[in-house]
Amino acid sequence: MRVNEFFDELRALDQHNVGSWPAWAYVGAVVILSAVLLGLGSWYFVLPKGDELDRARQQETSLRAEFERKQKKVANLDAYKEQLAEMRQTFGDLLRQLPSQTEVPNLLNDISQTRLASGLEEELFKPRPELVKDFYAVLPNDLVVTGSYHELGAFVSGVAALPRIVTLDNVSIQPAEDSQGQELRMSVVANTYRYLDGDETAGTTEDDQ
């Protein structure tokens, strides 16, 4: 069939009587109609579903990452519990290094004995009012001593070796008067600490409120 004859027969088809069409025209019309319907269906139904599928995939990736993070936390839960127990043990050990109120005089005596053992002369040892914190109190003490460089070093080392916590702040070292540079004068604030008992802690909380 030539091209001209094909188009002539195509124009001659009766649109109102499809049953009279030849087989090739009928099959071609069905194929074209199917392609149009398939295209329209893809445009209106498949493409929007593709966007939803992409969003679902992104959500799946996000949920999977969140699941993996939570799974790691669960896997490390025992390790976290062990670390917490160790931290509590360490905190308890540090807390035991804070004396009670009745033990503070003994701690101050230990500082004085350390000063004597180091060979220092005491010019001043004056306690200040204590400073109350959350669960402990700070007891500052103004201390002025004189001695040689090595004696001062021995005193500082001795204080650091005490079983109770003592910190030395505001340290000032100058040549002692009338010593011709042979002795040094050290001014320092020796901070001791004590823990607050239950009644003191409760009273502090009520005052804060």
Radius of gyration: 46 Å
Number of strands: 5
Give the distance, in angstroms, between the N- and C-terminal Cα atoms: 104 Å
Structural class: alpha+beta
Weakly predicted, low-confidence segments: 202-209
Count the DSSP helices.
Answer: 6
Query: H/E element string?
Result: HHHHEEEHEEH
Percent helix: 55-70%
Largest sheet: 5 strands, antiparallel
Overall form: rod-shaped
Q: What is the mean pLDDT?
A: 76
β-strand amount: 15-25%
Coiled coil: 53-97
InterPro entries: PilO, Transl_elong_EF1B/ribsomal_bS6
Organism: Spectribacter hydrogenoxidans
Keywords: Coiled coil, Membrane, Transmembrane, Transmembrane helix
Can you walk through the features of this model?
There is one protein chain. With 209 residues, this protein is an alpha+beta fold. It is built from six helices and five strands; from the N terminus they run ααααβββαββα. The protein has helices at residues 3-11, 23-75, 77-96, 104-117, 149-160, 198-208; strands at 121-127, 131-132, 136-147, 166-175, 184-195. The N and C termini lie far apart (104 Å).
